[in-house]
Write a structure and sequence with these properties.
By secondary structure, the protein is mainly α. Among the domains are: 98 residues, Alpha Horseshoe (Serine Threonine Protein Phosphatase 5, Tetratricopeptide repeat); 60 residues, no CATH class. Helix content is 76%, strand content 0%. The chain starts with a helix and ends in a 5-residue tail after the last helix. The mean pLDDT is 88.
Length: 235
Amino acid sequence: MDVSTRSVFEVARERFANRDYYGALLSLEDLTGSGRAYADVHHLRGLCFSLLDRPDEALQEFDLALALNPRYLEALLHRGLVLNQLGRGVEAAIAFTAAAAAEGPPVAGFSAPVAARLANEHARLGDAYAEAGALAEAVLEYRRAVELGPDFHDLRLRLARLLLEAGNPLQAREDLEVILEARPDWVDAQVQLGMARYLSGDAAGARDTWRACRDARPDLERISAYLAMLERIPE
């Protein structure tokens, strides 16, 4: 997560801990509408909806979390619990089986759960470096994070954004293409890919990418702004 997203998320977690589930959802609402909803954000929203007895919305959020991180153990378990409460025993059993298998093979010499925790810790440290203006160190921490969590697409997206900020659009393109290979419908990653193409000198590629984004999400004003910026550049 970037620094502003993490601060919002921490406020939401505090409200959740105080059983203010509506307040937690309200805190997270802006993130989901701006393309900054990471797996942890969707998971927390799912927990809130579940505790507010809104199971269908809870399942939607857990599914979104798992789309970003298929090995998200807590999301798998909570999804199974909600399905079980709804009387959907077969689906619940599948979810619990997936949770049992979620550990997966070792990553970089660590068990999968340990690697996942370390990935998130590297990401937190990367955010601290970014907040201090140390982009090179932030990139190194996030690179280690995605090495430990290669399927954590939300962390890889943050890495790509840091690379863009650090003036490395070609490296950012590589990571964004990895994300979009797994999640071709993730508009926020597409928007960032357009920026990476633009900053690496591929204005035509940026234009095509942003036009596709606009078709998918006409409500995102920043896409129109980016395209307006390109209007001065001949096709």
